[in-house]
Amino acid sequence: MVNSSPILSVSDLNVFYGSFRALKDISMDIRERKVTALIGPSGCGKSTLLRCFNRMNDLIPGARIEGSIQYRNEDLHAEDVDATEIRAQIGMVFQRPNPFPKSIFDNVAFGLRINGYRGDYAEAVERSLRQAALWDEVKDRLKDSALALSGGQQQRLCIARALAVEPEVILMDEPASALDPIATLAIEDLMRELSYDYTIIVVTHNMQQAARASDDTVFLMMGDDRAGYLVEQGATEQVFTNPKEERTEAYITGRFG
Amino acid sequence: MKAPETRFNPRLEQRHRIGSLFYGLFVISISIGIIGLLVLIVQVLVRGLPWLSWGFISSYPAPDPSEAGLLAALAGTIWLMGLTAAFTVPVGLGAAIYLEEYAEENLFTKFVEVNISNLAGVPSIIYGLLGLALFVSWLSMGRSLLAGALTLSLLVMPIVIMASREAIRAVPDSHRQAAYALGATQWEVVKGVVLPSAFPGILTGTILAMSRAIGEAAPVIAISALVFLTFVPSDPFDRFTVLPIQIFNWVSRPQDDFRGIAAAGIIVLLIILLSMNSIAIYLRNRYQTRSED
Description:
Chain A is an alpha/beta fold. Chain A contains ten helices and ten strands. Helix content of chain A is about 35%, strand content about 25%.
């Protein structure tokens, strides 16, 4: 799976919530400018793993990690690393569209403002909205409330909002699970499009989505101690057509999970 | 329809009768409230309207009811409200933000929360006496507007804190998460996302707290006790009187005409109160529709 040096490299990662171990001994690499899908049954820790990459778990009281995640050969959880800075470089799109109750423009401009963007705001907002394939639908009503948009449009707005701060990596936590099939396809096309410029890690419950839209697939399961562990990782085509593990095949073909 | 022999005895007629009985009781309950309020308002309007004039609003108190006015009390009330709001809003909102956004859930914060809820139920005269001892005597502010405003601030602070916390808690966590994920610091999340969403609720709570303060007589009597003032306060260290005290004084005079101008004073107080509440409702609706459509 490694053909250039990975942008993110996880080694022996363990995540605890209080005394509960949510993830056990995870080691994996993320390739740059590829779409990596995290799949697995509910409760296996996919979202927990995703939230380690931009240190959103820091916000949960009692959460702590062991092991390391290297981002461009720098330990993400090192003491001198500021989570705030990391989150501007590793953006996130959530399961449910969560635009701010502000105008479309202000949603995209929020990250520009807090991160002290020095260029032209209107131009940056337009660029982000174009990248998120939303510009043509909203260009005449940038001052309208973002909440007036449809669910699929809201989610693309959230993607534009994340893109505006020019991250390298975008984490997506089941970005289409709250959307209808057409809006879902739009998001998948967008993921493909974006992977030319960005590294994308996407959690999904949808096997077809993982197969269609990702380059690499990581399959997690929940052990008897309820801690998530990594079963298999590899190129999506290989994982889906010729899995090494029987459990992977069983899950992908819908025999459990 | 004749009921067949079954294992049920529905007693439909009796159950519907009980239903109607309770419906009737509830209608009587609401009627008592509405009728009481109507009688009060009609009585005040009948007695007070003939006395209500520009002269009444723009004159100082006088021994002759036909020349007396409530200018000093009206000015005192406006001054007092302005100062009270200036003290209460920053401190109350700050406390609410701390409790909701920063404080960890532990025994200490639980203790603080219980205390704030209890303080909202303390009789206002107790606050008056506290203000008298603390601000008037100990901090030597004298019987000034400043001492009165600080006392009223203490009185309505719990209301502002609780309303603000309610509004802050209603902001979806997903909005905070979205802001954090863009690289916002905690203060940027609070300032950029939480406060704008919570603003209508905070505003409503503040205005309602102010309309509570505006009608309070007891604590202000403890602080000021002045009813015959022939000047408009010009700075926070001046002595003052307020509408409820002025009205209370007029009502207790023996001459019947004073009760007439007391009623006129009540009308003025009611107008101020109702306008404040209407503004609160208007602002709440306006911002809510804006953030939901």
